[in-house]
């Protein structure tokens, strides 16, 4: 028995040593398991988007290639999330870098649920509501529109989504220099020539305020501000240059009622008591898709659009639409239609009293999509105004993650006796999208 006791006494240190070793191994295993669980739970998603666009519309056959790569990641749990994405872009023109490569934050926001009553999101976001006439992301552009602020998705109704937000548009001075919502806004003034260096004859960019200001010059002494018509709103450039300091409160209500989709957007800004509104309605009637978009900008300008589309078969559909502008025109900064015609790959906002009658068709053939549309633009206050636009698009899906597209457009205006000469502009873009 004494021997057994001695044996037990001799084994205790070894047993304690083994227990410590087991605890250490167990601790390492738990730390590793916790790390793996954290990775699985929080590193939810990584995404990369690459867009390469070749602009073949420059003078003398010159081409410009723009490359934009977006890298984003999202962490999150059941009731919270953090999203961060960056844009890297550069432009090659004539085989040389036209501008230095740029790197910037595209989106950066955090979201959480507030006691089951609302989902709150704070930070920089890309926003788009309804038709996008008032708020949209300007995705075609290299410098896309984002908003710095907060939004609340209220869970007050089962049939409609109600979003309340306060934000400032992320645009302004750099956009004005680059000719997006800035210099382009004065490019249509009679007698004013745009220079790629960032200045325009008779106009100068105030480096302190970022605003486009008019300077006196004998060459433009006869320029009348009224001449800045034909789809150009000079106020847009000024608004865009100061948007960082303008706060916007907005309410968006979206829902489906008896098969009809309805979106109502109401916006105010801190600089005035004026409000902008957008009402969009979409639905089906007798086998045809019907749409209406009624919009009013901060200055009371109106833009109303109506559309009708009919599916001939599973692959082909035809459409017709009508867009009218009020007596003061319509313009909102930072949207898909701002910045002047074709700066976003499409028709921009038209001028006061303009009327756009359009009709087109689309056809899908496996991985190939074809589209064509024609626009006849007239003016209810000027019978001599006659403008025609044709757009053709070809898209090809090379796989689940790669697509190639060709866009072609012609924009022609008739000559006016004793006035403006006829114009005939052509635009061609090739776009490659890769999403791994």
Structure overview:
The chain is mainly beta and 436 residues long. Among the domains are: 2-43; 117-292, no CATH class. Helices cover 13% and strands 49% of the residues. It contains three helices and 21 strands. It has helices at 2-42, 173-178, 234-241, and strands spanning 43-55, 64-76, 80-93, 96-97, 102-114, 118-125, 146-154, 160-170, 203-205, 212-214, 247-257, 260-269, 275-285, 288-296, 302-311, 316-325, 354-365, 368-379, 382-397, 402-413, 423-434. The protein has an 18-stranded antiparallel β-barrel. A hairpin with a 2-residue loop joins strand 13 (275-285) and strand 14. It starts with a helix and ends with a strand. 25% of the residues are buried.
Question: What's the helix-strand series?
Answer: HEEEEEEEEHEEHEEEEEEEEEEE
Mean pLDDT: 78
Overall geometry = globular
Low-confidence stretches: 1-10, 29-41, 172-241
Q: How many E strands?
A: 21
End-to-end distance: 74 Å
Q: What attributes characterize this protein structure?
A:
single chain; 436 residues; mainly beta; 18-stranded antiparallel barrel; two-stranded antiparallel ribbon; 3 helices; disordered N terminus
């Amino acid at each position: 028995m004494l021997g057994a006791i001695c044996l037990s006494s001799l084994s205790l240190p070894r047993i304690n040593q083994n227990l410590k070793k087991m605890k250490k191994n167990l601790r390492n295993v738990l730390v590793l398991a916790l790390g793996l669980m954290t990775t699985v739970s929080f590193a939810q998603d990584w995404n990369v988007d690459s867009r390469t666009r070749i602009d073949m519309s420059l003078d003398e056959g010159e081409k410009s290639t723009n490359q934009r790569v977006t890298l984003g990641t999202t962490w999150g749990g059941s009731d919270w999330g953090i999203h961060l994405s960056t844009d890297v872009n550069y432009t090659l023109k004539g085989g040389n870098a036209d501008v230095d490569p740029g790197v910037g934050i595209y989106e950066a926001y955090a979201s959480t649920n507030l006691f089951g009553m609302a989902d709150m999101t704070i930070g920089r976001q890309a926003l788009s509501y309804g038709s996008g006439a008032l708020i949209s992301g300007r995705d075609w552009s290299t410098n896309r529109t984002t908003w710095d602020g907060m939004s609340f998705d209220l869970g007050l109704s089962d049939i409609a989504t109600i979003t309340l937000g306060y934000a400032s548009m992320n645009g302004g001075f750099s956009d004005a220099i680059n000719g997006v919502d800035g210099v382009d806004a004065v490019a249509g003034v009679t007698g004013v020539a745009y220079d790629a260096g960032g200045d325009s004859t008779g106009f100068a960019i105030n480096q302190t305020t970022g605003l486009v200001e008019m300077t006196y010059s004998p060459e433009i002494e006869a320029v009348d501000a009224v001449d800045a018509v034909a789809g150009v709103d000079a106020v847009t450039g000024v608004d865009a240059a100061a948007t960082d300091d303008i706060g916007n409160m907005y309410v968006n209500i979206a829902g489906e009622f008896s098969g009809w989709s309805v979106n109502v957007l109401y916006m105010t800004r801190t600089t005035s008591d004026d409000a902008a509104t957008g009402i969009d309605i979409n639905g089906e009637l007798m086998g045809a898709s019907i749409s209406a978009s009624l919009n009013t900008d901060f200055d009371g300008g109106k833009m109303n659009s109506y559309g009708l589309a009919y599916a001939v078969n599973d692959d082909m559909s035809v459409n017709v639409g009508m867009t009218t502008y009020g007596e003061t025109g319509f313009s909102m900064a930072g949207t898909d239609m701002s910045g002047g015609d074709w700066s976003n790959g499409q028709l921009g906002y038209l001028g006061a009293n303009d009327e756009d009658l359009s009709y087109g068709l689309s056809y899908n053939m496996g991985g190939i999509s074809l589209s064509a549309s024609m626009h006849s633009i007239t003016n209810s206050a000027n019978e001599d105004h006659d403008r025609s636009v044709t757009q053709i698009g070809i898209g090809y899906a090379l796989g689940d993650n790669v697509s190639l597209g060709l866009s072609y457009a012609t924009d022609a205006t008739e000559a006016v006796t004793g006035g403006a000469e006829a114009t005939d502009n052509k635009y061609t873009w090739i776009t490659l999208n890769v999403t791994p």
